[in-house]
Specification:
β4 and β5 form a beta hairpin. The strands form 6 sheets. Strands 1, 2, 3, 4, 5, 6 and 19 form a 7-stranded mixed β-sheet that branches. By secondary structure, the protein is an alpha/beta fold.
């Protein structure tokens, strides 16, 4: 099976690229593991209830536009790419437990972001979620946790999720923000995109008005409870977010949501053989792209947060730009779309300035990983504790791949999506090397569990059109 253009990811970036191509009369296959397009940011409520606070109406408009172009956009929801091979050959697993091969003439990867988790003592207790996990519960499952809820992390996602949960009826008592109040320079940079800046201020004002306590320059360094969460321990942070030993504060909690920003999901760009670079402003390791979003592999492109954290506006702009540019490569154009793509390119500079200021304010600092002690579980899939990592490092194993083979950290069900940042920062701390100078964590196929019968049914692929 082959297709002229395959787009992986129906979030803002991938969906807008498919729409741009369709406006030029070019068909595409749009693959996404979610039941509806829009990604995490545009995920609709499954119960049809009133939108949560911070709802972005562009998500509904995006889905409606996809439906209008259904003759040219083959949107395969519930289809997840589990492997990429040379020649842009994909293995795809569908929601009905089937698998098939698909070869793309042009492959667009819009794979989105992964949350950054920070291990602390007690973080494996029931009742602990990532911020995005709580957001999905509120949106997709129409389910919200009961009890006193404490949210911790840094950056805009923290305040967005807090405001959304409060609006859904969750008893959010405290927000624990690792970042300090932004400096005047950072405020000026974020004000380059006034709508986003004022939106963030609005979330914080909403929380304060409703009596939610906000603790700045602080982090959860321990979670305690007998079989479930009952209390969290806060510590003040130094400039690099290393927990200080003074002024511990204890808060009652039944539910905890905690994550520290986003990083690009690079699984497919790694499997495709693309070059990657470390870019702290973009969330860490990201695929290397040229000015037209082309990667180092011929006819493979990367857009959106999967290519570097930039936010929804950047993702929408990049999708429109790439869709237009790819249409030109394929011999067609649309005058109105060309003007929109040019305008989108101009907006990208403001979005980049906003992102730099945002990272300066709330970007991940390495000291936060010092909250773990020797008994803290780092890799939850394989039950690897910090002491296991340290023993391997003391034995002279100082590279991610060797540490993975020795301890199995990153070999479990999530393949390192949860533990990779903590493992890399521990290697960096013990070796004295910056994370940017360490090799990337490796990935392997299949990216998700699949039955042997589904693998056996995979048919040989045909040549791309």
């Amino acid at each position: 099976m082959s297709a002229r253009v395959v787009i992986v990811g129906a979030g803002p970036a991938g969906a807008s690229a498919a729409i741009a191509l369709a406006r030029c009369g070019i068909a595409s296959v749009l693959l996404d593991d979610n039941p509806q397009a829009g990604g995490q940011i545009f995920r609709p409520r499954s119960d049809g209830g009133a939108p949560l606070i911070g709802h972005d109406a562009r998500g509904s408009a995006l889905r409606e536009t996809l439906r209008r172009h259904a003759a040219l956009i083959e949107h395969r929801s519930g289809h997840e790419v589990i492997a990429v091979y040379p020649g842009r050959k994909l293995w795809v697993a569908s929601a009905d437990s089937r698998a098939y091969e698909l070869t793309a003439g042009h492959l667009v990867l819009a794979t989105g972001a992964v949350e950054v988790s920070v291990p602390v003592p007690g973080w494996t207790l029931p009742g602990i979620y990532t911020l995005g996990g709580l957001q999905i519960l509120a949106k997709a499952s129409a389910t919200v946790p009961a009890g006193r809820t404490v949210l911790a992390g840094a950056g805009p996602l923290l305040y967005l999720v807090a405001a959304q949960l409060v609006s859904a009826g969750v008893e959010v008592t405290d927000v624990v923000d690792a970042a300090a109040f932004p400096t005047p320079g950072q405020i000026a940079g974020m004000a380059r995109v006034p709508g986003l800046f004022l939106r963030g201020i609005g979330f914080e004002l909403t929380l304060r008005r409703l009596g939610v306590a906000i603790h700045r320059c602080s982090a959860i360094v321990e979670i305690t409870g007998d079989g479930t969460v009952s209390e969290v321990v806060l510590a003040p942070l130094g400039d690099d977010w290393r927990p200080r030993a003074d002024r511990r504060t204890r808060l009652r909690a039944d539910v905890v949501g905690m994550s520290f920003g986003l990083r690009p999901n690079t699984e497919l760009t790694q499997l495709a053989g693309c070059e990657h670079v470390y870019d702290a402003t973009a969330g860490g390791w990201r695929v290397h792209r040229d000015a037209n979003f082309a990667t180092s592999v011929a006819n493979v492109y990367a857009i959106g947060d999967g290519a570097g954290i930039g936010g929804v506006d950047t993702a929408l702009a990049e999708g429109t730009i790439l869709g237009h540019d790819l249409a030109l490569r394929l011999g067609t154009t649309n005058a109105v779309l060309a003007a929109e793509a040019e305008e989108a390119r101009h907006r990208l500079s403001s979005f980049a300035a906003f992102r730099r200021a945002l990272v300066g304010w709330s970007g991940l600092r390495p000291g936060i990983f010092r909250a773990a002690d020797s008994s803290t579980m780092v890799c939850r899939c394989e039950d690897v504790r910090l002491s296991d990592l340290d023993q391997a490092l003391e034995a002279g194993i100082a590279l991610p791949r060797g540490l993975k083979l020795r301890t199995r950290a990153g070999m479990g069900l999530c393949q390192g999506r949860t533990c990779a940042p903590a493992v890399q920062h521990r290697i960096a701390e013990k070796s004295g090397l910056p994370v940017a100078e360490l090799p990337m964590p490796t990935v392997r196929v299949p990216l998700r569990p699949i039955s042997v019968s589904a693998l056996a049914a995979l048919a040989p692929t045909t040549a791309a059109e």
